[in-house]
Amino acid sequence: MIPTPYLLFLGDAPDALAAKVAQGIRDWRPEIAVGQVRLPGCQADMGLPDMTLDEAKAAGAKTVVVGVANRGGRMADNWIAFLSDALAAGFDVASGLHTMLRDQPALAEAAARAGQELHDVRVPTVQYPIADGQKRTGRRCLAVGTDCSIGKMYTAMAMDREMQARGLKSTMRATGQTGILVTGAGVPLDAVVADFMAGAVEWLTPDNDADHWDHIEGQGSLFHVSYSGVTMALIHGGQPDALILCHEPTRTHMRGLPHYSLPTLEALRDTALPLARLANPACKVVGVAVNTKALSDDEAQTCVKEIEARMGLPTVDPVRHGAGRLVDALVDPHGSSRSSEEARKGR
Amino acid sequence: MIPTPYLLFLGDAPDALAAKVAQGIRDWRPEIAVGQVRLPGCQADMGLPDMTLDEAKAAGAKTVVVGVANRGGRMADNWIAFLSDALAAGFDVASGLHTMLRDQPALAEAAARAGQELHDVRVPTVQYPIADGQKRTGRRCLAVGTDCSIGKMYTAMAMDREMQARGLKSTMRATGQTGILVTGAGVPLDAVVADFMAGAVEWLTPDNDADHWDHIEGQGSLFHVSYSGVTMALIHGGQPDALILCHEPTRTHMRGLPHYSLPTLEALRDTALPLARLANPACKVVGVAVNTKALSDDEAQTCVKEIEARMGLPTVDPVRHGAGRLVDALVDPHGSSRSSEEARKGR
After folding, report:
1. In chain A, whose CA is at the least distance from the CA of B223?
2. Which listed residue, A67, A338, B200, B294, has the most CB atoms within 10 A of its CB?
3. Out of B130, B189, B229, whose CB is closest to A72?
4. Which residues of B touch A135 (CB under 8 A)?
5. What's the predicted TM-score (pTM) here?
6. pLDDT tens string B116-144
7. Closest to B143 (Cα-Cα) out of B131, B132, B155, B134
């Protein structure tokens, strides 16, 4: 277990999205985030107190969490200098980067000298099986997106919390570094060896009660050429009963790929659903989750109404509006929230 | 480099397909395969002389190649005993299993004692990049299958050899253990960490002359739930200009998944082509390769004619009939081998 509370290290994050690990912890477990550290040039801000190591120590922080995900997961030299100081000051350090803390000689040495621990949460600790595609009991919901970093984890977290609040059987199944740091368990799917990806997802979402829902954290996008294989493994290993389509209406191009435009929600539905039905013929698209963070309240309302009318599916921003209608669509699919158009189409 | 020639170890392969690594070497580099070793219960046969280690030594063999791929890549105890003997007798040992030779203490010890080398070809030796999806120069052909182990590598090998024989610019790009053992280079794609799969394929098929074709060895199948993510990474990382559809007409269910039936060639085309066009809008399906090994000559002829008429695409068994018509479809797409129906459809 990683000692809490955390001091969130934002490094020199070029934008807010690069610090999405810190943001996820801030948003879903604020009680364990006491402060933040920003290096010169940092463009992210969690709205937490900026702290020195001494101040964080006084505030009770036990672990410095690398809350920023660089493209490709490399660790910069000025990060190593700061993290070495943190170890010397008596903090543990946790990271979900591909480049492991333990593989940085300076950090390994500083940790050994200080008697502190390095926690690499993106290292698979299980020998995952090859997927066997056998039908499992219990039910599963997967969020798929028109792009990466678009709100899939927030959607799953919000739906899980809503089900828990209603006393329904539900488990959040983390597949990425933030989800693992927030929930304390999961599979670091993008670090799993290719042949075992789908098997890792099967392992993560085993047989369960017939009325239990796993909310599987999505990864990548079928339309993002860098990571689409990971998304595919989630769809086939997760054998979801329900898909939620995730979208961000102001995004102008695929994340990190300026020469690729985003697909429509219709294209996402028509691509993801047939692929999902290969592993689970009963799979349905049950709702749309829109990340409206960049919009005003009025704009957000207009946006989700337009999409709901167009797609014939319950559409909300689960952070802004709550995930109630998405959960209704899962557990009460014939309820009043379902439009007649949607019922006619059988989606 | 792995010393040749090879002695092919078939272990206790439960069927011929399990020994497909050995078969690939036997079929494409027979000059480097001097004999075979079969344990009790082995159901595979390369048609090579069965040899003891002493006999193989006398025949000049330098390396014992583990030519059998177990599901999940585990190494059995009776294999380790034989391979330890081989090391003691002065052979190197090469393997493409996920379970590494070097991680078996008995083999590591035997190799050190004998002064021989262990060659794990399924270990990525390169720090592959994250895919960037940038358009590359040169052209690429990818074989995709209705199932795994269906002839994708043979199709690529046959097309590459045909192009070489015609004096055209062509390179075979191996992505699996057999291809790497046959060609001497490549990416062991199913052992690459998930986030870097598509980047590894981009790395493998870099910018090239405008009239140069890479023949990319396919892996898995979009319809095989255990491995579909690997196939997806090949489609998006490879950004193919041309797809070849591969099929085996007597297969009754997906390899290793008795509860999953095979898709039709039409379903494969309609699933793979839109996904491929995301990375390369100009991608076309140019032909069908049928593995007719289980059929008589007459049956094979009937089968490929039926598929050709149905699909409107040049259809051959590249091993039985040669890959000439598939290469024609690549380099002479408006030639006489293209049916009018196909031209009308623009495929």
Report:
1. A278
2. A67
3. B130
4. 259
5. 0.89
6. 999 999 888 889 999 999 999 999 999 99
7. B155
